[in-house]
Structures are given as C-alpha cells and as structure tokens.
C-alpha cells in the first residue's frame, strides 16, 4: 500500500505495470514449458488487486497478499472488477502450495492448459481495462504515475487500450 511519501497514483501505476509484466512472464514461461508460469499468473492477479485496492484507499496487510479471495472480497460490492477477480481466486493455490513438494515427495500437477488460457485471457482484459481507467501507460518508466486514481464504478470496455509508444496515456475512442 502507499507509503506516506509516495502518492497512490504511483502505486496504482506501478502495481499495474508489475501485473502486466507478470502476465507476460507467465505466457513466456508457459511457451517454454515451465511449471512456474502458473505462479506468475497468480502474481499478475495479486498485483492487479493491489492496484484496485490502493485506488479504493484500502490497506492490504502483508499476511493477506497471496489471499486473492480475501483481497477480491475487500473490493466494494459496486466495484465492476470484484466478481471477475473473485472468479480468479483459484489462482492463489499457485502462489503457495503449488510451488513446494508434497509430503509424499511428489510435485503438484500443473494447471491445465485450458484453465491457464482462460485465466490469462481474463487477466489481460482486466489489466488493460484498469490501465485505461487509471490512464496508465504500462510501458512507461516507474516514475510515471497514473493519470487519475478515481475509483472504478463502471466498466469502460468501449475504449481502445492505451499502449506504449506515443506517450499519450489518455483513453482513446
């Protein structure tokens, strides 16, 4: 959560940038056959939730960071991403137990490819939608804050995604 010296706009922007990077890393690792792809998928969801909660001025305790179910439930009822994020709470298992050998010495099975694909596609839409809402250039340097930190209350799917390259972080129609 934001410290007293760093504005929420910078925390929101950089949490979204980290979510975007974790999602890209997850997809890259999946193509390489790495079982760690699922972990980065969970991390993308976690960082997206941290951005959303920061915009709501909701503090997240360190003990809650991998608990996607708890984090999603802390979003206000009227938040448009609350339900989609709750549906992705299953990813939290890939942040903890999945990464360790089971008591019998076996490895937990990897996430099925179809489940990974659905979660990845959903996260891409959610991250891009949040970046549009908060006017965040996902490719900008880490000293570039969000254009706004207005709470999300409606979806804005009709807006084209903001991408790096032109320096313009305003949503486009």
TrEMBL record:
Chain segments carrying region Disordered: 154-173
Q: List, alphabetically, the SUPFAM superfamilies matched.
A: Nucleotidyltransferase substrate binding subunit/domain
**Domain annotation HEPN: ranges:** 15-103
Q: Which InterPro entries match?
A: HEPN_dom
Name the UniProt record assigns to this protein: HEPN domain-containing protein
Q: What is the species of this protein?
A: Enterovirga aerilata
Name the lineage.
Bacteria, Pseudomonadati, Pseudomonadota, Alphaproteobacteria, Hyphomicrobiales
